[in-house]
Specification:
Number of helices: 2
Low-confidence stretches: 40-54, 167-171, 178-211
Helix content: under 10%
Distance between the termini: 48 Å
Mean pLDDT: 75
Number of strands: 34
């Protein structure tokens, strides 16, 4: 090898003469290289570094609005949703849930529980799970103990809570050896000077109680909106009936940090788990009996990142790895999973991504200060635009109509960007 550069990925390169090379890189910088004199082995430095805003005039975005979303850091803001019917943005922080008018970022409602516990996994644990129901009318959100509440989107009023019914034997509750020691109506002392103790009510040997499942990491609705899934710190995926507000079933996937995604067809569920030493993806086929574990496919991905989404057509699953790679997994006709190709790589961990309806454009949020917000061609892997230098790293993002992008930064600021051609 005569020459090797350690600079970010090259988009294109051109020799202007036998001693000069011009290269364009993924960090939007153009570099001019000159050949060293004979006998010199060190890498020649780039003589010119010019930052470019966009590789194409059709792909350029300008900051539109920004405003403080939640309490200042170090509190985390870790969720951003978009509801198209009412044109609302919903953000979730450790402090509360906020509903915004997506047009001009005016806050409309603030509600929901504060979430401070269980933020112990690499300091990026979720500030409570949240999802919007498919009809756009309600928000499902969890508290510190893993209980899931239902709120009206427009008013913020609590309209329900989802309980897991835990059957506890009565002897266990009272610390008795067995149920036969509990009389239905205990014998009371016959003493007129002693206070009368009322008889115990007639009870069965079992009672149902409500219990949180510890931290709730993620919530995902089925396409028909009648059921949803949640992942929890105790390692279970739970299926819930939205109308009855009851748990239908649960299954163990293990470890913490799981994210749940349901395919557009509603026939496959993906769970991304983050153990201490590697990452694990589990794919399940969904049938009437919840998840058919005989069709479970597990893939070790050696990544602590649990960000993943199905494609709009359900034929692919995209997983963002902690080293900045976006990996594709193909969904077979039989419901299996097979490795696809590496689509692109960023110089930092991907925290969130959204794919356009045409499945050609993808917008990526990263905690890297080198490329915190960027737009790519998903099919070619070509970088189209990135936020100007100095932009804060981004936790979450959403795509909106009229070529607009909404982001939540690590500074807890909500921002919107608009395509330059659309703004004109």
């Amino acid at each position: 090898m005569l020459f090797r550069s350690e600079t970010p990925g090259v988009q294109s390169a051109l020799f202007t003469d036998e001693n000069t090379l011009i290269s364009i890189h993924a960090d939007f910088k153009t570099r001019v290289w000159r050949k060293n004199q004979p006998g010199v082995t060190s890498m020649p430095p780039a003589l010119v570094r010019t930052h470019m805003e966009s590789l194409h005039e059709d792909w350029a975005y300008d900051l539109e609005y920004e405003g403080k979303a939640h309490e200042s850091t170090p509190l985390k803001t870790d969720a951003l949703l978009y509801e198209p019917k009412s044109h609302r943005l919903v953000s979730r922080g450790q402090d509360q849930i906020i509903v915004w008018d997506a047009t001009d970022l005016v806050p409309l409602k603030k509600f929901g529980p504060r979430c401070d516990k269980y933020r112990d996994y690499r300091n990026t644990a979720t500030a409570g799970a949240i999802a919007i129901t498919n009809d756009g009318k309600n928000v499902a959100a969890s508290d510190d103990d893993g209980l899931i509440y239902l709120y009206e989107l427009e008013t913020g009023a609590e309209v329900g809570v989802f309980h897991e019914k835990v059957i506890v034997p009565i002897p266990q509750i009272l610390g008795l050896p067995d149920a036969t020691t509990i009389p239905a109506t205990p014998t009371l002392p016959v003493n007129p000077n002693q206070a009368v103790i009322p008889p115990l009510p007639s009870i069965s040997s079992q009672v149902a109680s409500s219990s949180g499942a510890k931290m709730c990491w993620s919530i995902g609705f089925e396409p028909d909106g009648n059921f949803f899934y949640s992942t929890h710190r105790d390692g279970y995926i739970r299926k819930w009936n939205l109308a009855k507000k009851e748990m239908v079933e649960k299954t163990m996937v293990g470890n913490i940090g799981a994210n749940v995604a349901v395919s557009p067809s509603g026939k496959m569920l993906a769970s991304l788990v983050t153990p201490s030493d590697h990452g694990l993806m589990s794919f399940f086929q969904i049938d009437e009996s919840f998840m058919d574990q005989s069709f479970e496919e597990r893939v070790t991905v050696h990544s602590h990142n649990s960000t993943g989404k199905f494609s709009k057509d359900g034929k692919s699953f995209y997983h963002a790895l902690a080293d900045g790679r976006l990996q594709e997994w193909k969904i077979t006709e039989s419901g299996g999973v097979m490795p696809g190709k590496e689509l692109l790589r960023l110089p930092g961990q991907i925290m969130d991504f959204q794919i356009a309806e045409d499945q050609e454009m993808i917008v990526i949020a990263s905690i890297s200060d080198k490329m915190p917000l960027s737009v790519w061609n998903l099919k070619s892997g070509r970088l189209l635009w990135q936020a100007p230098s100095g932009h804060v790293p981004v936790w979450r993002l959403q795509l909106m109509p009229d070529d607009r992008i909404a982001t939540l930064g690590v500074d807890n600021i909500l921002r919107t960007y608009i395509g330059r051609k659309k703004a004109e």
